[in-house]
Amino acid sequence: MCAGFFPVASGGCDGNCPAGLNYIQTIGAGNLSSTVTDLVTWQRGLLNHRLLRSESVKSMTSHGQLNDGTLFNYGFGVRVTKFDGQTVIRHGGGISGFRADLAYHPDSEITIAVLANSDGFNTAKLSDQIARRVINVNVRSESKTAPHSR
């Protein structure tokens, strides 16, 4: 198990838990230990309908709708947005000393999981930087080869 780190006023980070924080009290809000491999396995299980029926996955990954018909970018537990013109379905979170982001790019069939043990680390930003590089690599490599169907 790793320790979470927190930014300090003098710069840098330290591993001292903020006063009053008890991780035992965080059940449901972050009392979960995982790895990037676990998160990618979870994502694949959802997408391959081994964990939920296809109808449930479709509802989960669709935009929400208010009573007046207005759409918003949150499905059932995930945010559905655009990234460089492509759909991205993601869920991020954190608790004191830790941050996480799990992003799936269905147009490119890419899943990116980022975990950090630093309270001030922006996991979504790193995920987006990785996606931009991977998606650009895929686009370039596909343009050099003969057209093919997926």
Output the keywords.
disordered C terminus, two-stranded antiparallel sheet, Beta-lactamase, four-stranded antiparallel beta sheet, 27% helix
Give a description of the structure.
The chain has 150 residues and is of the alpha+beta class. 27% of the residues lie in helices and 25% in strands. The strands form three sheets. It has a four-stranded antiparallel beta sheet, with helices on both faces. The chain has a two-stranded antiparallel sheet with strand order 1-2. A two-stranded antiparallel sheet has the order 3-4. Strand 5 (79-83) and strand 6 (86-95) form a beta hairpin. It is globular. The N and C termini lie far apart (40 Å). The model is unreliable at 139-150 (pLDDT under 50).
Chain-wise SSE layout:
Blueprint: E1 6-7, E2 13-14, H1 36-47, H2 54-60, E3 64-65, E4 71-72, E5 79-83, E6 86-95, E7 98-105, E8 110-116, H3 123-143
Antiparallel strand pairs: 1-2, 3-4, 5-6, 6-7, 7-8
Describe the structure concisely.
With 150 residues, the chain is of the alpha+beta class. The protein has helices at residues 36-47, 54-60, 123-143, and strands spanning 6-7, 13-14, 64-65, 71-72, 79-83, 86-95, 98-105, 110-116. Helices cover 27% and strands 25% of the residues.
